[in-house]
Design goal:
There is one protein chain. The chain has 102 residues and is mostly helical. 51% of the residues lie in helices and 10% in strands. A hairpin with a 6-residue loop joins β1 and β2. It is elongated.
Amino acid sequence: MVDVRQSRNTSLIEIRVLSKDQVAAAQIANAIADVYRRQTSAAKNSAAVELVDAAEPGIRPVRPNVPLSLSLGWIGSVVVATLVALLLRGWLPKNARSGSTP
C-alpha cells in the first residue's frame, strides 16, 4: 500500500509504503520521491524539490502485531465468556440451574 499526503500547514510531502519486505518498502518510497523530484525539476516554472529525509527500512514490522492481536483476542473472549456466565446465572431460575423439577 502506498500513501502520499501533505503534512499539515507545510509544503512537505510524506510518502508511506507498507509491504511485508521492509527493504522493498523503503526502496519504493525513495523511488517515488526521486521520480517526483525529477519530474518537478523538468517542468518549467516549478518550485525546487528537496529530499528532506530518505526512507530507511524499519527495525521491526509496523503491522500486524501478532502477539498483541492474540493477547487481545484471548482477553476479550475470557471477558465475554465471564459476562455470559454471570448473565445466565442471574436470569435462570434456581430450579433450572439445579436440574430438579418441581
